[in-house]
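Module 6 notes. Inverse folding takes a fixed backbone as the condition and produces residue identities as the prediction. Think of it as a translation problem where the source language is geometry and the target language is the twenty amino acids. Below is one complete input and output pair. Work through it position by position during the lab.
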């Protein structure tokens, strides 16, 4: 049976941080993004409102800032090894994140078959953020369904990895899920729970791997 592994980014592949935080750090705007993150977590801002505010905050953003943010982010260990193992088994791996597409899509370089984020204009910005392109928790399910069709699998063949309420709707529709360094509500919903900083260990909970994938 072919399996599609669906990974969240912020707080899941990235330990204790999020793409907007790392991007803002490059611009010296950590306090400002922290307030937006707080408002989003408190549901004072929706995904589109958050994205519009972040877009305005990042007026001076350059491709060099984005690359530095990506390279300096606190990634879990073993991401590339897990995705290589998934490919070698004939399975698929994809990232679905509410974070900006220009950041999320860099994970294609590491071996993801697909990477979907909220659609932002190209950096440096000359265009506004369009609401239609901003992902929501419900849109994660829609994207997952499109990926299932693309790769010839069904929801029953999927494994979801996430950490927060934005992953809850996806966890509801797949049979296996891994709460990675997650908040209590998602832990209660998941079929597997992982605390740590090595994706290889999280992957082994749902996809027993060959010896070469073992965490070191």
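Target side of the pair, the amino acids:
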């Amino acid at each position: 049976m072919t399996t599609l592994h669906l990974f969240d980014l912020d707080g899941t592949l990235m330990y204790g941080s999020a793409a907007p935080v790392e991007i803002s750090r490059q611009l010296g705007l950590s306090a400002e993004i922290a307030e937006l993150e707080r408002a989003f977590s408190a549901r004072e801002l929706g995904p589109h409102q958050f994205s519009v505010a972040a877009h305005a905050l990042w007026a001076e953003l350059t491709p060099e800032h984005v690359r530095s943010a990506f390279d300096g982010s606190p990634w879990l260990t073993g991401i590339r090894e897990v995705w290589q193992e998934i490919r070698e088994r004939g399975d698929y791996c994809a990232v679905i994140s509410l974070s900006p597409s220009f950041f999320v899509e860099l994970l294609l370089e590491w071996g993801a078959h697909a990477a979907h984020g909220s659609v932002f204009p190209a950096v440096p910005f000359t265009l506004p953020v369009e609401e239609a392109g901003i992902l929501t928790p419900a849109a994660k399910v829609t994207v997952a369904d499109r990926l299932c069709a693309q790769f010839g699998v069904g929801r029953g063949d999927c494994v979801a990895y996430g950490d927060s309420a934005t992953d809850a709707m996806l966890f509801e529709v797949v049979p296996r899920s891994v709460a990675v360094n997650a908040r209590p509500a998602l832990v209660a919903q998941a079929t597997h729970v992982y605390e740590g900083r090595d994706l290889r260990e999280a992957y082994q909970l749902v996809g027993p791997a060959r010896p070469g994938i073992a965490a070191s």
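Reference fact for the lab report: The mean pLDDT is 95.
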